[in-house]
Amino acid sequence: MEERNYRKRRRSSAWTVITIVVILFAIGLLLWGGIEPKDRKEMEIKVHSVLQTMSSQETPMPQETPTEIPIPWNLIIVNREHPIPEDWKVEPVELHNGQTVDARIYDPLMEMFEAARSINLDRLPNVESGYRSEEKQQQLYDEKRKEFLQQGYAESDATALTEKWVSVPGTSEHQLGIAVDISGEVYDIYAWLQENSYKYGFILRYTADKTAITGVAPEEWHYRYVGVEASTEIYQQGLCLEEYLDRLRNPHQSERS
Ligand SMILES: [Zn+2]
Asked: Which residues surround ligand 1, an ion (CB under 5 A)?
C-alpha cells in the first residue's frame, strides 16, 4: 500500500516539473518574439561568449608526456647529439702509467683488472687512454685531421674522415672520465672483457651491430662504466646504451616490442 502511494506521489511531482518547463518555454518564446532582431543578435553573441568562457575554464586534458626520469651520472649519454654537460665534474685519480680516470670508477676498474690478470699472463691490463680534457681531445682531433690533410684529402673530406676516428671535442666519452681504452698482454683480453666486463659495471660501448645508433665505428678496446644493474641488462639483452636508455624512458614501448 505504502509503495503504491509513493509511486503516485512521484508520478504527480514529475507532471508538475513537466508543466513548469512547458510554461517557462512558452514565456521564453513570447519574450523572444518581443525582442527586436538587433537585440536578439546581441543576446546571441553574449550567450556565445559566456559559453566560450565556460569552456575555456574547463580543466585542460592531461597531455601525454614521456616519462622524465632523472638520469644518474653513470648512465649519462654523450655522443654527437649529446655533448657533455657544462657542469660535469671529474675527480681524476692517477693510474700507475700516468693515465687518469674519475674516482667513481677506480674501484670497479681495478676489480675487473685483477679478475683479468689470470688470462693476461698474470699481469694487469692497461688503460691506454682514460680521462681526457677538452684540450686533449681537441689536440687528438687536430692531429688526426692534419694526417688526412697531409695524405692529400680535401678539407671537407679530411674533416669527415677525422670524425670517423676521433670524436668531436665535447662529444667524447673520454671527457667524462668514466670510459677507458684497454690493452693487454694478449689479444684474448678482448674476448674475456666482452664476456665478463658487465660483472664489474662496464660495457663494450661501440659494437659493429650498433654503429647506426651510436654513430661510432666498432672499438673493441673502449669500455664504459654504467653500473652493474645497467651493464647486466645491456649485456644479457644485447643492447647499446642508447637503446637501454630508450627503454628506461619508454617502458611501455619496450613491453610491446
Ligand atoms: Zn675510447
From this structure: 181, 222
Distances (CA, A) of 39 to 18, 35, 36, 52: 30, 6, 5, 20
- Alpha-carbon distance values, 49 to 56, 121, 233 (Å): 10, 84, 57
- DSSP class of residue 182 equals E
pLDDT the model gives residue 39: 59
CA quadruple 108, 110, 114, 116: dihedral positive or negative? positive
Closest CA to 174 of 88, 114, 234: 88
Determine if residue 35 is left, alpha or beta; phi over 0 gives left, psi from -120 to 50 gives alpha, anything else beta: beta
Among 191, 189, 204, residue whose Cα is nearest residue 239: 204
Report how far ligand 1's centroid is from the alpha carbon of 82 (Å): 17
Tell me how far the alpha carbon of residue 149 lies from the centroid of ligand 1, in angstroms: 23
Q: Minimum mean pLDDT among 46-50, 82-86, 221-225, 231-235: which range?
A: 46-50
CB atoms within 10 A of CB 155: 10
Distance from the alpha carbon of residue 249 to the mean position of ligand 1, in angstroms: 26
Q: Per-residue pLDDT tens for 79-114?
A: 989 999 999 999 999 999 999 999 999 999 999 999
β pairing state of 92-94 and 100-102: antiparallel
Predicted pLDDT of residue 200: 98
Q: Among 147, 163, 185, 219, which one carries the catalytic annotation? A: 219
Asked whether residue 135 carries a pLDDT value surpassing 70, the answer given is yes
Q: Which of 185, 222, 182 has its CA nearest to residue 79? A: 222
How far is ligand 1, taken at its centre, from the CA of residue 129, in Å? 7
Q: Is 219 a catalytic residue?
A: yes
Give me ligand 1 centre to Cα 152, in Å: 27
